[in-house]
Amino acid sequence: MSAGGCAVIRSGTVIGARSGRPGVGDVVICRGVVRDRCPHDDDRLRIDASGCVVGPGLVDVHVHGALGHDFTEPDAAAWRAILGAHLSAGTTTAVATLASAAPTVTAAALGTAAALLTDQGAPTLAGVHLEGPCIDAAQRGAHDSSGLRSPAELLRELTPLPAVLRMVTLAPELAGADELISHLSGNGVRVSVGHSSASPEVLERARSLGATHLAHLWSGQSTLTRPGLARIPGLLEASLASEGLSAEVIADGRHLPGTLLTIALRCFGPDRLCLVSDATAGTGLAVGRTFRVGAATGRVHDGYAATEDGGSLCGSVLPLGMTLARMRALTGAPVADVLTMATATPARTVGLYPRKGALLPGSDGDAVILTPGLEIRDVILAGRPVQAVTPDGL
Ligand SMILES: [Zn+2]
Ligand SMILES: [Zn+2]
């Protein structure tokens, strides 16, 4: 990346800085990196944040698309459009998430990611998250069933392991999953359990083999069954009782009511719970527009998307930055905790903290300035302000 800019963000309530506690102060960015001071008086941008909250740039580890485009498209221009839309809404670090698709489609998308990272054409791209294709067909949600395949098949496809791969969401109960989990986690790829009917025992085994994360709680997870006199926990209950794993929630105010978000926050706490957008191609499209998600067609409504028959939700259409105020309103979580769940915690989950998700000296100079109501006011990437670039009104 070209050397970043110099900026001082003044007098905001800063979250994610060295003190560890929110406090009013300045954030200094020098040549794109957070520093204690910057000697470049002449070309330093001064941004007043008084009365506002200043946090690290947002980190979204589960995002599929925007503006009618999906990361399963191999076109670099589509990737840039998606990343640009999310950047203008505060996401300065995105892990491009690919839903289950044919091997050729996944391979082409991985190639696009590698090219973008090599020619530095996508400064916010932080690798790829494969959501599937090794998932339980009964918990596949919007994933296209024709794209599902076995762990052994995926293991072959991922040999040699693509350097851009950062996370894989899978169902650990599938035959051959143990080898896949061990191989991925042993080579630095995060393993997330999701779209799965894993029992508590299977989840614990996956954890012992290196799984560290749980995809979107209450979506694509089996739940309690009550055969006869028994009570058998599903993956949901196993997740809530788990220790040491991080987890995702979609806080768009549609997927999960406040009660469930509150349960998730109590079980995991802000240091293990990540806010994710799970945003689809419908993000940033006008109300009434349609878009593809997996095998389904979604239609954009005000703040959500539904299948054409209106019978079920069809992914999210809100970028991560637009879910912060909702998370706070629905759970009463303190502002600092809400920011942590969208910055430090997801950055740790994918191994990027404290370069991302923090405003510590040496962190990348990515920041968001939020109103007291947690609406995104300004976005700064590598010390430079980001212009709103989206055509369709994010
Ligand atoms: Zn999913
Ligand atoms: Zn997803």
Notable traits:
394 residues, alpha/beta, TIM Barrel, 2 domains, 8-stranded mixed β-sheet, 8-stranded parallel β-sheet, 10 helices, globular, disordered C terminus, binds zinc ion
Task: Explain the overall architecture.
The chain folds into two domains: about 5-55 and about 370-385, no CATH class; about 60-355, Metal-dependent hydrolases (TIM Barrel, Alpha-Beta Barrel). Helices cover about 25% and strands about 25% of the residues. It contains ten helices and 21 strands. The chain has helices spanning about 75-90, 105-120, 150-155, 175-185, 200-210, 235-240, 260-270, 325-330, 335-340, 345-350, and strands at about 5-15, 25-30, 35, 45-50, 55, 60-65, 65, 70, 90-100, 125-130, 165-170, 190-195, 215, 245-250, 275, 290-295, 295-300, 305, 365-370, 375-380, 385. The strands form four sheets. Strands 1, 2, 3, 4, 5, 19, 20 and 21 form an eight-stranded mixed β-sheet that branches. Helix 3 links the parallel strand 10 and strand 11. Helix 7 (about 260-270) packs across helix 8 and helix 8 packs across helix 9. The protein is globular and about 70 Å long. The two termini are about 25 Å apart. Residues about 390-394 have low confidence and may be disordered. The protein binds zinc ion (2 copies).
The major β-sheet equals: 8 strands, mixed
The CATH class name of the largest domain reads Alpha Beta
Percentage of residues in strands: 25-35%
What's the architecture of the largest domain, going by CATH? Alpha-Beta Barrel
Q: How would you classify the quaternary structure?
A: single chain
C-alpha Rg (nearest Å): 20 Å
Instruction: Please tally the β strands and state the result.
Output: 21
Instruction: Supply the number of helical segments.
Output: 10
Estimate percent helicity. Answer: 10-25%
Average of pLDDT: 95
Structural class: alpha/beta
Q: Low-confidence spans: pLDDT under 50, at least 5 residues? A: 389-394
What compounds are bound to the protein?
zinc ion
Query: End-to-end span in angstroms?
Result: 26 Å
By CATH, the topology of the largest domain is: TIM Barrel
Shape: globular
Superfamily at the CATH H level of the largest domain?
Metal-dependent hydrolases
